[in-house]
Amino acid sequence: MKRFYLVRRRVLNETPSRGRAVFHVRRAGFRRDPGQRARSARRLIALFLALVFTGSVILAAWPRLYLPSLDFVFDSLRISLDSRVRRLQPAVVHLTVLAGPGNHDASRFVVQQQGTGFNIHPSGVVITNNHVLMDARRAAVTFPDGSVFNIGKIYAEPTCDLAVAMLENASGLPVASLGDSGRANPGDRIFVIGNPLGMKRIVVAGSLGRTLRLKNSSLAALELIAPVHPGNSGSPVMNTEGQVIGVVFGVLKTEDGVHGLALPANSVQHFLNTIMPVFQENTE
Predict the structure, then answer these.
(1) CATH of region 181-270, choose from 2.60.40.10, 2.60.410.10, 2.40.10.10, 3.40.50.1820
(2) Contact 233, 93 (CB under 8 A)
(3) Average pLDDT, the chain
(4) Whether residue 248 has pLDDT greater than 90
């Protein structure tokens, strides 16, 4: 507890003025307990030592905290020079979604989530993951040139975590083409373009792994031996011919590290075929 002592000051002088005595008085002040100064000094020293220790820890961890991120960006810039990547990049979009329960009292439960997608039709048909658009109350798509479009309709297939979003009032948009994922083989070189870790239009290179069967499901998934991070959901997986052969939807932990998982493009095409009448109606 802080203790203070009141010090009363004397009258400094007396000045005559028209027969009256005018007193100039210094205000009473407070003098801090002498022991308090020592305690404050000890606290400052302890704080200083704590800051020095924290700073040394941060400096020691600096390479681990920052250099991988810098390499991540530099590698992306280098890979982006590939002509096939440059052709696909304009069609890769960033999704911003306000999601929450549908009841009218749920406004305070609305959260913002983000992901990646890619456009396959000039009038705006975006492929992404179902979990990116799940419970969407409002969603917008941003293209690399800065143009923004609202999503009008969503067609989802939760069993394979796939969603197709129809954009409103869109035309003349850049497109990506779906390839035949059945022709893909382990070891094939791939590129993944997306918006991971809060960054935009990051490109990573890797290779295809095995074709896996998901547990408790008959669906196949492509193993990606490439870095995949939060925000990559819905990212297109491109082969060396510039075609999309998969859609990133998750990760797989292995003894060799964390690998990506992608829905094969043939599964995407199958879903598009099932909604083809709706697809054609919304793109004419």
Answers:
(1) 2.40.10.10
(2) no
(3) 79
(4) yes
